[in-house]
């Protein structure tokens, strides 16, 4: 693992532990049947807080090359129901608000399989950049120009030399995956038009995580957890001004979209001011608040496990819906092994037929999973709970029930 002693934003050494989630496997480390007896790689998962600037972060991180290389990264945006509509609306907003000419260049960092850029390619110049070669291949198959590389300042030098300045640079659900934030932002600065360039990112929102005791967004891919206040200070180093922010429906309404401009005269929106005020009033960036969060998170693990033990004593069949990164965090923290979960159901063909790490629980297709009687569907892909419940309404009609763990509260639906 890569270790650091300084904050990723302000470079202070005043770092204090917030939450230790134990040892976890890497995201997407699903196991083939023939490899079930092999030793697994388990690494510590711990978040700290910078006492100087407030950033929540990991100080021991996994080398991104291990995560993304060799086709091991199995998250593809187009496999997720409902995401295409979400990103179409997002792309249309960006185009209508910020793109003034067909010659304007829009660059998306961590563009995955091109789900957003597909909605812009006929309207303006686009380029995707992504570190996962299998995601890049899927994007190229859809005729989305995509450069296969981890994004950093060196990558930005290559891209700017060939493509010139970008009017808009986006980084959606990836900035939390960046270990060297200063180098990353130097790259963004290099790509942007120096007068009117717009930088937009979407990421998990620490404020909502604290408010709702959400911990499932913590895993080895996510190196930092952001509030708006930390970005308001940090962006000034790169001649950017934060001027807008909105909490979006993504990640179970725990995601925030943040807008920055090279234009120092850009007017701050009322919704940005409201969010910043909320963070200040509720002391979101204090270490005291972070330690209260720790206590609540650990209690939520106990509550979930106790609920499932109770159901298993009644001989109920419990099937986990969604073998996602978030489900991996929940299942490991709450110790949800074979004695509590019968099997997983997942819509992604790339995961079906494999087994979960650590507990080695089989992952089935929906077709195969529903061949057996299921009493409860435990939705561990909590961010898609509403969508899953709507999609699986037939299961409910037949007498089945959904379990949705939401922090210290367990919902039965």
Helices and strands in order:
Layout: E1 2-3, E2 15-24, E3 43-50, E4 56-57, E5 60-61, H1 64-68, H2 83-98, E6 105-109, E7 125-130, H3 133-141, E8 146-148, H4 153-163, E9 168-172, H5 181-191, E10 198-204, H6 206-212, E11 224-225, H7 228-234, E12 241-248, H8 250-253, E13 255-261, H9 270-281, H10 287-313, E14 318-321, H11 325-333, E15 343-345, E16 363-364, H12 366-369, E17 376-379, H13 385-391, H14 393-397, E18 401-406, E19 409-412
Helix pairs in contact: 4-5
Describe this structure in words.
The protein has 413 residues and is an alpha/beta fold. Helix content is 32%, strand content 22%. It contains 14 helices and 19 strands. A hairpin with a 2-residue loop joins strand 18 and strand 19. Helix 4 packs parallel to helix 5. The longest helix is centred in the last third of the chain and has 27 residues. 46% of the residues are buried.
Task: Calculate Rg over CA atoms.
Answer: 21 Å
What kind of sheet is the major sheet?
7 strands, mixed
State the strand order across the main sheet. 8-7-6-9-10-13-12
Average predicted confidence as pLDDT: 93
User: How helical, in percent, are the residues?
Assistant: 25-40%
What's the number of extended β-strand segments? 19
Overall geometry: globular
Determine the number of helices (DSSP H or I, runs of at least 4 residues): 14
């Amino acid at each position: 693992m890569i270790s650091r002693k300084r904050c990723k934003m302000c470079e202070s050494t005043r770092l204090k532990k917030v939450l230790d989630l134990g040892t976890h496997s890497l995201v997407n480390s699903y196991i083939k049947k023939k490899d079930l007896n092999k030793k697994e790689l388990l690494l510590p998962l711990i978040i700290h807080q910078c006492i100087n600037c407030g950033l929540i972060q990991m100080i021991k991180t996994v080398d991104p090359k291990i995560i993304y290389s060799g086709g091991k990264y199995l998250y593809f945006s187009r496999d997720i129901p409902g995401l295409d509509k979400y990103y179409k609306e997002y792309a249309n907003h960006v185009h209508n608000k910020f793109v003034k000419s067909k010659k304007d260049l829009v660059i998306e960092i961590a563009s995955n399989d091109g789900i957003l850029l597909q909605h812009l390619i006929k309207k303006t110049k686009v380029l995707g950049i992504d570190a996962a070669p299998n995601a890049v291949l899927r994007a190229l198959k859809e005729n989305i120009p995509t450069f296969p590389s981890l994004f950093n300042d060196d990558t930005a030098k290559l891209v700017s030399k060939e493509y010139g300045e970008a009017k808009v640079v986006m980084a959606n659900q990836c900035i939390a995956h960046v270990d060297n934030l200063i180098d990353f932002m130097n790259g963004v600065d290099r790509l942007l038009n120096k007068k009117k360039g717009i930088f937009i990112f979407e990421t998990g929102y620490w404020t909502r995580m604290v408010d709702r005791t959400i911990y499932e967004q913590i895993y080895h891919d996510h190196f930092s957890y952001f509030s708006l206040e930390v970005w308001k200070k940090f962006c000034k180093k790169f001649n950017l001004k934060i001027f807008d922010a909105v909490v979006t429906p993504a990640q179970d309404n725990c995601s925030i979209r943040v807008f920055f401009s090279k234009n120092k005269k850009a007017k701050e929106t009322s919704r940005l001011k409201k969010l910043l005020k909320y963070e200040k009033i509720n002391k979101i960036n204090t270490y005291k608040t972070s330690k209260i969060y720790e206590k609540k998170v650990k209690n939520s693990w106990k509550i979930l496990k106790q609920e499932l033990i109770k159901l298993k004593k009644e001989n109920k069949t419990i099937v986990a819906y969604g073998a996602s990164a978030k489900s991996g965090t929940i299942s490991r923290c709450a110790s949800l092994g074979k004695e509590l979960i019968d099997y997983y159901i997942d819509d992604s063909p790339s995961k079906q037929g494999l087994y979960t790490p650590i507990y080695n629980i089989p992952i089935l297709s929906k077709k195969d999973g529903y061949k057996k009687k299921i009493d409860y569907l435990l939705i561990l892909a909590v961010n898609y709970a509403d969508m899953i419940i709507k999609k699986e309404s037939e299961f409910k009609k037949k007498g089945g029930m959904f379990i949705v763990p939401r922090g210290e509260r367990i919902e039965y639906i």
